[in-house]
Every structure is written in structure tokens, then in C-alpha cells.
Amino acid sequence: MTRDLLLLLEPGFTDPAHPGERFVCPHCALIEGLLASDPVRVARLDVKRVAFPRPRAEVVAVLDEAHQGLPVLVLGDEYPLPEDPQTLGERHFVNDPKRILALLAQRHGFPRVH
Questions:
Q1: Of 18, 81, 95, 105, which residue is most buried, by most CB within 10 angstroms?
Q2: Per residue in 7-54, pLDDT tens?
Q3: Strands (DSSP E) along 1-114, which ranges?
Q4: Residue 71's Cα: distance from chain center in Å?
């Protein structure tokens, strides 16, 4: 049985196009805030923070080179699949931040973002 895997960009990353500046992904930051609100629920899924530069080997290993955009929720088989995931081979995933938040509420009991 596989658990859901949430892939996020590491906060405070740098971008070679903007030397000396640090960034956060606004979509990942919103999800990070939800995760911080309930560490007990976080333990029910796998969360991996990935470095900004591409290729993102951790993401490529799970999906492929064409699907490195983050955040992404790779759906495990602990819960029934929702009706709207993207499919890549045998993997099912969601990369829309609002839908990720909704699925975290539905599948893991996090509060809904309203």
C-alpha cells in the first residue's frame, strides 16, 4: 500500500536569474502553512521538499521530466482515487494548488481552505 506523496519546493530557494535574492513558491507556501497547522496529520502522508534547480531528480524519478512543476500531490492507493487526477503510466497526480488543498482536506482531514 502506498501513501500520498506531496512534493513541494524548498522554501528560501535561490534562482540564478536573480543573484543574491531568496524566494518562496506562493503555492507551496500556502500548502506549507496548512501542513504547519497540524503536524499529526502531516505524519499520515509523505512530504518531500525539493530544490529549485532543474532537472529535479526526485520529481523525475516519481513522474518524468515533463512534469517537474511543483507543488504536486502524487496519489497513493490508501484512498479511492478522486474523479479528476492526471495519469502518467500507473501514477495518478494533481498539480493544481487549490485541488491539492481540497484533497488534503478530503483524504487526510486537514481543515478546508475557504
A1: 95
A2: 999 999 999 999 999 999 999 999 999 999 999 999 999 999 999 999
A3: 5-9, 13-14, 22-23, 46-50, 72-75, 86-88, 91-94
A4: 4
- Of 114, 112, 106, give the one whose Cα is nearest residue 45: 106
Nearest Cα to 94, choosing from 31, 35, 11? 31
Residue 104 is classified by DSSP as H
The residues spanned by each domain of the chain are 5-108
Question: What residues have CB less than 8 Å from 111, skipping those under 6 apart?
Answer: 34, 37, 38, 105
Say if residue 104 is exposed, middle or buried (CB neighbours under 10 Å; 0-12, 13-18, 19+). buried
Q: What's the CA gap between 48 and 82, in Å, rounded?
A: 22
Residues in the chain: 114
Encode pLDDT of 44-103 as tens digits: 999 999 999 999 999 999 999 999 999 999 999 999 999 999 999 999 999 999 999 999
pTM for this structure? 0.95
The cell numbers describing 76, all together, are 497513493
